[in-house]
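Look over both lines before class:
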Amino acid sequence: MSGESELRNPDLGSLSAIPERKPLGHHVFENLKQAIVRGDFSPGNRLVESRIAEAMGISRTPVREAIHKLEREGLIQKLPRGGFSVSNLTREEIEETFGIRSVLESYAARLAALKHQQQELVPLEEKVEEFQYFLNRGEMEALLKINTEFHGLLYAMSRSPKLIKMINDLQDQIYRFRRIILKMETMAKMSNDDHRQMLSAMKKRDADRVETLVRQHILRGQKLVLRALESQVQEF
């Protein structure tokens, strides 16, 4: 992180007003967290309590509480001269998250290949075609949601609630990584090609093949994210 003078302030337009009769602290935290995960607030953006409170139409107290919770989750970091900024991802964090994902998600895919009902493959096929449609149109932002839905549908077929919960607990980090991967057309195309191969192996109930494809798919993504980190392309 360079000097505080170089820190950028985020665009607060993505923050929404707080619904009435809801705990303020929870909504402020979720609002800020999703803004970071979606990339509305980029690494290095400085979070200013007063500006956030004004944008959301609330007092500074729940904003302060939310900021401290975000710090505990590692999404923001305290600055030497006061205040907070959105954290950069580290090599260690990237390797740890992708390593865990490669184990959990490949195992979920293996179970899915063994346990799925044939009709459950139809939504997967639809997601592959939907992804291709938006890729052909160059609408890269739409790919993020479709990709997430494809993987969610696939792992749901594992019939393992505990395993699915463990995967979902990593969703915020996964979403940040996918923003890097799917912004590149070549990587987006490769991602959907992988999905087609996964689907083909699922139809054959080839559990070994599906497990291998998912693991390779995830570890390829790790290499790309690490490359982005090393070249200081901070788009996550």
